[in-house]
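Batch job 17 of 40 flagged for manual review because the log was empty.
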Amino acid sequence: MPLHRSVPTIKIVLLSMFFSCEISYAIKELKEREILRNFLKISLVPTEKEVYGILSKYEPQEFTAFVFEILNDLCPKRKNGSRDIIIDSTDINLNLNWHAKKITKESLKKKNTSGAIQPHRGFFIGMKLTLALDSQTLKPLAFLINEANVAEPKIYPEILKELKRKRIIKAGDVIYADRGYYSYENYVISVRNFKVVPLIFPRKNCNFKKLFNMFRYPLKIFDLRRNTEKEIKFYKEIIAKFKELISKWKELRSVRSIIEDVFKIAKKAYSMENLHRYTRSSVQKYCSLAVLLVGVTVNYGINERKELQAFSE
């Protein structure tokens, strides 16, 4: 059954997330308020059991595809020229009820859930959401869900692969990422494999001479069927742009940091701060809907830093 046919259920879940209330309360309000049913265009209100039953029938990938289909219709299309993309990750705390049901480490492993130790918060049970945004429109472009203990340098190539799979990134695009994604290899594969400019903020011990010497032309461009001279020129342009931007990365920190305000909206305004879920599948479905709410929010004009901060409070 296509996800579009379950739109009333999706509307109820979005309603509960938007107002930070339980699904049972959202259903109760819908049953009691005709004006709310008319506004959401829901003629028959399902029970809580029916809502969860319908949600469980779909694969997480179906939710993700459904969400980005809506966002692509709502949000402005990509303009010609290179695009600046911001990438960042945030922890998703799974607010498990340890007293209601015995939950063991073994059961969490079976559900692809893990614990992690973070310097700023200590040990926690959760997952990690990695989001890619268009820096100009703040439109969500792609996201990944990983176990909480997966290091960000390992996530970086995976989110680039996802952007490439969706045909979002193009040669010459600039990728903004904080120093959590820093590694020499991530700079190199950005240029070599994806032909993008990797503005990953460097760490203090970054040896730029060593880094610049690591850039090599990929062997495939010397194939007789390719225009080798043209491709060499393009790689030189990417590397030159990288050197220019990385030399003034401190001046560009504000471009990247706006994604932190977007995460605050998802967590504070749209019920993502503590999820009562602990399977990877369920987390991905709810993250998909949170990404949809964020995309709708920024598309309707709340896309400046002060507005985002005020909305999340």
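Reviewer: the log was empty due to a logging misconfiguration, but the result itself is present. Residues 97-102 have pLDDT under 50 and may be disordered. Unflagging and moving on to job 18.
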